[in-house]
Every structure is written in structure tokens, then in C-alpha cells.
């Protein structure tokens, strides 16, 4: 059974196998049931290595031993492997989340917080500004400043962007409202979509014609995007400047006609 090298390389990467493991697994799938000698011949993996490779595949769940003699192996269905790997990823992710959450309670993390707040040269928050790159990094930073809001949050973006992240914004706005934070939203884009979002978020939304994406917190901090369309390579600027934030807030009021 001849298998193109391109396919071998892709399967290897998809399933996190080495070259020999990939060749042996593909040979097993093609043959159905085979002995180590037959697999070595079909896969062209050196016979001296085939036994080790089969053992490795068995431990990983890609192959099973058929009962009886002589010893023969069966290749596990690709669908079953895929589901197993997906479950492993979920399990690993859940464990990692728990592990990361537990870090907050450690003395080491407390020391990190103290170092950040009271270091040798502590950074004054009012002196800070930052360029943030990457959709995930921007979302994390935005979540942080919104959670620290004390009185008011202004959101100005496009309806399509809100629609994509609707569940996230539902939770965010619910949390802000619960804490007594005033939330004002203005969106550009399709009017029907804006009405739908308004209903989903249970909050009045002003429609604007200006394409802009920014968030103002307490008229002290502002985070604004540098491009209209969202993507993994998003860029944004965060400024902790009361003067700049108030100026933007004034422009926002003018665009939406005040409160």
C-alpha cells in the first residue's frame, strides 16, 4: 500500500504522531488485521522498530491486539481516535483551568500582586498607555477594565461585531447593571440587527453612522481599535487619560444627541 508523503505528513501533524507511528497506523487501517512482520513490509518501517512503534500506538489508543496466536494488530477507526483526542483536550483544558484558578490562592501569586502594586519603581496607573495586539489579548484587557468600572461605561462599535460576541456582551452588561454601572451603547450597521441586539441585551441602543470601535470607562480610560473588522491580528490602543477619555465621551454625546 503506497501512501503519498504529503498525506503522511498531514496525518502526523493532525494526530500528533511521529513518522513511523503514522506509517504503521496507516498500514494497519489499510490492512485491517496484520502481524508485525506484515506491517513492517506494508509500511516500510524497519522491522526492528515495528514492535516498538506498535507498542507505542497501542498505549496511545491507535491500535489494539487481536486475541489469539500468532499476535496480530487492529487499527482503531479514525473517528474513534478523533473523539478520544477531543475528549482528552477537553479534560486537559478543564484541569488546566482549575489549576490556573487555584494559583490565585497561593502565596506566590500574592507576592506577584504585591510586586506589581508596590515594586521598587511602582507604575502610576495614570501614566500608563499601551498598544495591544491580538484579538484574545484585547478581549482580556477589555474585560479587565470593564470589570473595574465604577460609574459608567460607553460602548461604541458596529452591530456585526456585537452580534458575533452577543453572549459575551449579554453577561458583561448584566454584570455591569447588577453593580449599578450605567451602560450607554451606540452601534453602526444594519438597523434591523441593531433592534435585535437591543432586544437581546434589554438596553436602549443609539444608531450612529460613524464607523468607530471604542470603549470608555468612567470617562477616565479608553480602549479603541485601530481597524474596523475583527480578526486574530486586531490592534488596539489603551489610554488611561482623563483628558482624552472625556474628549471622546463629549464627541460620543454629540454623535448620539446627549444622554
Please provide a written account of the structure.
The protein is of the alpha+beta class and 259 residues long. The chain has 2 domains: 5-79, Winged helix-like DNA-binding domain superfamily/Winged helix DNA-binding domain (Arc Repressor Mutant, subunit A, Orthogonal Bundle), CATH 1.10.10; 128-256, Endonuclease Chain A (Endonuclease, Chain A). It has 11 helices and 10 strands. The protein has helices spanning 5-15, 19-31, 36-43, 47-60, 78-103, 107-118, 135-147, 159-164, 166-178, 191-201, 242-256; strands at residues 33-34, 63-66, 72-75, 129-133, 152-158, 182-188, 205-207, 214-217, 221-225, 235-239. Strands 4-10-9-8-5-6-7 form a 7-stranded mixed sheet, with helices on both faces. Helix 10 (191-201) links the parallel strand 6 (182-188) and strand 7 (205-207). Helix 1 (5-15) crosses helix 2, helix 2 crosses helix 4 (47-60) and helix 3 (36-43) crosses helix 4 (47-60). The longest helix is centred in the middle third of the chain and has 26 residues, at 78-103. The mean pLDDT is 85.
| Tally of DSSP helical segments | 11
Strand order of the largest sheet: 4-10-9-8-5-6-7
Helix content: 40-55%
Q: From the alpha carbons, calculate the radius of gyration and give it in angstroms.
A: 28 Å
Distance between the termini: 73 Å
- Reported by name, the CATH topology of the largest domain is Endonuclease, Chain A
List the helices and strands in order: HHEHHEEHHEHEHHEHEEEEH
In percent terms, what proportion of residues is strand? Answer: 15-25%
Low-confidence stretches: none
Question: Mind telling me which CATH architecture of the largest domain this is?
Answer: 2-Layer Sandwich
Shape: elongated
Q: So what's the CATH class of the largest domain? A: Alpha Beta
CATH H-level superfamily of the largest domain: Endonuclease Chain A
